[in-house]
Write a structure and sequence with these properties.
mainly alpha, globular
Length: 317
């Protein structure tokens, strides 16, 4: 709040906080929730719920999606609390609310814990405790397994830790059905295999940040050339996994066509990353244009693939 004052009758009177300052503080608390990441989490969770074989009352479906969003935001807040030291060293994260001093670390931790407990409790009461259990485990996995254990210890951090972002469709399916079967596990596998090429494309052009913070991302520990190879390898492996809903008979030819097209386009981007003009160490001579293009397309890929699955099920039956 502003500490400015005005003269009033010979005495000092505090100025009221401006609406802009209040909105700025609200934006900081929202930023703790990682809203851009939350968008993808909510979307894939909603698709898992929408394609489940049992219909869910719209109010309960909305409650489930809200719980997934709040749970993801809680995990994001606790991630920012723990990573505040390395966030301060990286250009793309230094202006986050905690390292910049706009929100106290303990306040952020309390915020995250409160939202985590609330989201799990409401999910259990509104839908079922199977979905609540998966939601609780996803929060635990992101905070304890990925953020605290893996991220600073191994270049496989995003491979194993990527499972945290793959849980939402499983949670959505469980909210509708009260169980987990083969299809939601396939949706989990799609996101799990998608995460490494998505995140390593980002890390190629943000490797300087990770090196300064001593985070063992693959470009830092194994070099850019090996990272490019791994991006292509995982994208090749992702291609049949993306087709798996059709291969097991859950979806029809419309989805198969979309998955084939999207998978082929992703492979083309990964090939461009591999073949981008490089120096002897594999560093880009073209300002990482191919890696930036692959990163952006990877987001479109996942949104379009899950959207195609929903359309195939809801429109074509």
């Amino acid at each position: 709040m502003s500490g400015a004052t005005i003269e009033k009758g010979g005495a000092q009177a505090p100025l009221a906080a401006s609406p802009g300052a209040d909105l700025s503080e609200v934006r900081d608390w929202i930023a703790l929730l990682k809203p851009r990441v939350m968008t993808l989490v909510v979307f894939t969770g909603a698709i898992g719920l929408a394609v489940a074989p049992e219909a869910t009352h719209p109010v309960l479906a909305l409650a489930a999606i809200l719980c997934i969003a709040v749970g993801a935001g809680a995990a994001g807040a606790m991630n920012m609390w723990y990573d505040r030291d390395i966030d301060a060293l990286m250009r793309r994260t230094a202006r986050r609310p905690i390292p910049s001093g706009r929100i106290a670390p303990n306040a952020a931790l309390g915020f995250g814990l409160t939202l985590a407990v609330a989201s799990v409790a409401v999910m259990g009461l509104a839908t079922n405790w199977v979905a609540a259990g998966w939601l609780a485990f996803s929060i635990f996995f992101y905070v304890a397994v990925y953020t605290i254990w893996l991220k600073r210890r191994t270049p496989q951090n995003i491979v194993i830790g990527g499972a945290a972002g793959a849980f939402p469709p499983v949670i959505g399916w469980a909210a509708a059905t009260g169980e987990v079967s083969l299809v939601p596990l396939i949706l989990f596998a799609i996101i799990f295999m998608w995460t490494p090429p998505h995140f390593w494309a980002l890390s190629l052009w943000a490797h300087g940040d990770y090196a300064r913070a001593k985070v063992p991302m693959l470009p830092v520990t194994h070099g850019a050339r090996e990272t490019r190879r791994q991006i292509l390898a995982y994208t090749i492996a992702l291609f049949p996994v993306g087709l798996a809903p059709w291969l097991v008979g859950f979806s029809g030819p419309a989805y198969a066509a979309a998955a084939t097209l999207l998978g082929g386009m992703f492979l083309l981007h990964a090939w461009r990353v591999l073949r981008e003009p490089q120096d002897e160490s594999g560093r880009s001579l073209a300002q990482d244009a191919a890696a930036k293009g692959a990163f952006k397309f990877s987001l479109y890929y996942l949104f379009a693939l899950f959207g195609a699955l929903a359309l195939d099920k809801l429109v074509f039956g």
